[in-house]
Design brief:
The protein is mainly α. Helix content is 57%, strand content 0%. It is built from 5 helices and no strands. The longest helix has 15 residues. It is globular and about 35 Å long.
Length: 88
Amino acid sequence: MGSGESHIMAWSAWWDAGALSEAARIAYFKQWPPPPCWLVWMIEAIWDLQPWESEDEFDYSPYFAQAEALGFGTQADYKADLDDPRWA
């Protein structure tokens, strides 16, 4: 993955060890909001989702609605950022 791999591994260990409440997780991301292309990752972190365990395609729509209501951006923002030519 590159140089960011060590950082995300350390962050994940810290995040998992904290046993934060949903409100505390939301507060963390309000203080440190991710860019739109990271919204799925943030959604998985806040609501402790494990979509890879689903046999069907995981539906993020209800979580995007919650994230939008919290002011984190929309599913359209996420898709537009992923399609941004800067990331190509």
